[in-house]
Recover the amino acids of this structure.
């Protein structure tokens, strides 16, 4: 099915982007092992495409730090390490507080309503123990805040971080009690936005990131 989709794509740039997305997902989801060699010809055959867009996709993955092109060995998977996860959460802690303050200043009543709607869905799916749906809603909740900053640079950086830790977050939500505690943390964030209290919002969000980081790193031990 993947090859059929790719075979219809005529724009080489768009094709390499699609291949990049597929390979990136495979790396982040652990379908390729750490230090596994990615062979250009084999990938092209599996995806039903020529080698050129695969080569371009691999170059983009190298720029993202997800693979490394080693002389006399080829392209190998680096993925996301425990240190990477720790760094991502540390950077989120530093800049997501700024995002909250900017969002508080610039967000509309409609944005707050979106947060309420997403939170209510999180409550529903928490009761159903639907981990994947909760993870998706978690991302949506934070992206409403990012978008409300009206800063496309800050929004894009934070969205990228969310993407790179999604697999770790999915695992973390399955640890005993984490689903319920994460819901409560989002309730506190929502309440702070409803009250239009930037200091409270920053404090509860930073606590949420700290707790998420600790849970994520435990899974990497």
């Amino acid at each position: 099915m993947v090859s059929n989709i790719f075979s219809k794509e005529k724009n080489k740039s768009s094709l390499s982007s699609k291949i990049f997305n597929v390979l990136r997902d495979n790396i982040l989801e652990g379908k390729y092992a750490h230090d596994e060699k990615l062979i250009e010809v084999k990938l092209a055959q599996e995806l039903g495409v020529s080698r050129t867009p695969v080569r371009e996709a691999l170059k983009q993955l190298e720029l993202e730090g997800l693979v490394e092109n080693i002389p006399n060995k080829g392209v190998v998977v680096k993925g996301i390490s425990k240190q990477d996860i720790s760094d991502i959460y540390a950077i989120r802690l530093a800049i997501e507080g700024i995002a909250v303050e900017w969002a508080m200043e610039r967000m509309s009543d409609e944005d707050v309503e979106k947060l309420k709607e997403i939170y209510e869905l999180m409550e529903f799916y928490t009761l159903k123990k639907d981990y994947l749906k909760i993870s998706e809603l978690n991302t949506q909740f934070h992206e409403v805040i990012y978008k409300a900053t009206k800063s496309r640079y800050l929004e894009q950086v934070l969205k990228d971080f969310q993407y790179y830790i999604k697999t770790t977050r999915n695992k973390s939500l399955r640890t005993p009690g984490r689903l319920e505690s994460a819901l409560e943390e989002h309730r506190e964030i929502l309440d702070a936005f409803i009250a239009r209290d930037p200091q409270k919002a920053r404090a509860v969000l930073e606590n949420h990131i700290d707790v998420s980081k600790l849970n994520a790193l435990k899974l990497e031990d």
